Amino acid sequence: MRGWSSAAAGFLRFGRTLKRTRVFTNADVLQYSKVSHDSNPLHFDSLAAGNAGFEDRLVQGMLVAALLSVYIGEEMVGEVQATNVREEKKRYLVKFKMACFSNSSTVIAGEAMTILPTLAAEQANTWE
């Protein structure tokens, strides 16, 4: 798995965007099936997936939620952009606009709010 990336390290503030890229592998799907007991043929059999109308085998739903990749081996790019940052009681209430892309097409988008203890970027997490 690749980590978060951007051009410059720094702090979260309005308008900054964080990007993440991830490719789910056969090993990811197999390992997840062991803990979830999800052995649906759509995850392991290309013919079954094709007969169900899919291009290829699918990544399990909850594993998909990790970054919204749909097909095994498909590269997904996830972005979150801070659209509102407000300090409140020594913490930060942050609203994000989020999107995931595959082949430059948006596959899902939405908004989320979170409470952060700091606006500092950690380790490989950096903001553009």
Could you explain the architecture of this structure?
This protein has 128 residues and is an alpha+beta fold. Helices cover 16% and strands 37% of the residues. It has two domains: 1-23 and 74-128, no CATH class; 25-73, Roll (Thiol Ester Dehydrase, Chain A). The chain has helices at residues 26-36, 46-51, 61-64; strands spanning 4-5, 17-23, 75-88, 91-102, 105-116. It has a five-stranded antiparallel sheet with strand order 1-2-3-4-5, with no helix packed on it. β4 (91-102) and β5 form a beta hairpin. The chain is elongated. Residues 1-9 have low confidence and may be disordered.
Backbone shape: elongated
Average pLDDT rating: 75
Coarse structural class:
alpha+beta
Query: Could you give a short account of the major beta sheet?
Result: 5 strands, antiparallel
Q: Using only CA atoms, what is the Rg? A: 17 Å
Q: Helical segment tally?
A: 3
- Percentage of residues in strands: 35-45%
Total of domains: 2
How far apart are the termini? 20 Å
Neighbour order of strands in the largest sheet: 1-2-3-4-5
Helix-strand topology string: EEHHHEEE
How many β strands by DSSP?
Answer: 5
- Estimate percent helicity: 10-25%
Which spans have pLDDT < 50 for at least 5 consecutive residues?
Answer: 1-9
